[in-house]
Amino acid sequence: VQLQASGGGLVQAGGSLRLSCVASGRTLSNYVMAWFRQAPGKEREFVSHITWSGGSTYYADSVKGRFTISRDTAENMVYLQMNSLKPEDTAVYYCGARYIKSSKYSYWGQGTEVTVSS
Asked: 7, 21, 45, 111: which sits with the fewest CB atoms below 10 Å from its CB?
C-alpha cells in the first residue's frame, strides 16, 4: 500500500484544516486506515482510525469532538477534518494503514505538517 498525505498548513487557533491521504497499490477492504501525529520532540501518537469496509471510527481523547475521520472508497481517499484547532495540535500528521487482523501499522505516508498559531 502506498500512501500520500496532503493538506497541512498554518492556521490560527480555532481554525480548521482538512487533511487528505490517497491510497494505492492494493484493495483496501481488509485494512484499517489511520492518522497519527508527531510533535517536535515527542513520539508519534495515534489520532484516529477508520475501518475501510465498515467505516467504524475511533478517536484519541485529545481530538474527540473536534476531528472527524472519513473515507471515500471510490476515490481511495481518507480524510481528517480538523476543527477548533489548538496550538497543541501542531505536529507532522501521518496517514497509516494496517491489515485489519494486525495490530501494527505497516504502511505510512510521508507526513504533512500542521502548525496552529496562538
From this structure: 45
How far from the centroid of its chain's Cα atoms is residue 21's Cα?
8
Backbone angles phi, psi at 87, to 5 degrees: -55, -30
Residue 60 burial (10 A CB sphere; 0-12, 13-18, 19+): middle
In 1-118, the DSSP E strands lie at 2-6, 9-12, 17-24, 31-38, 45-51, 57-59, 67-72, 77-82, 91-99, 107-108, 112-117
As given in the structure block, the three cell numbers for residue 118 are: 496562538
What is the C-alpha to C-alpha distance for residues 98 and 116, in angstroms, rounded to an integer? 29
Q: What digits encode the pLDDT tens for the residues 37-61?
A: 999 999 999 999 999 999 999 999 9
What digits encode the pLDDT tens for the residues 104-116? 999 999 999 999 9
Residue whose cell numbers read 481523547 = 61
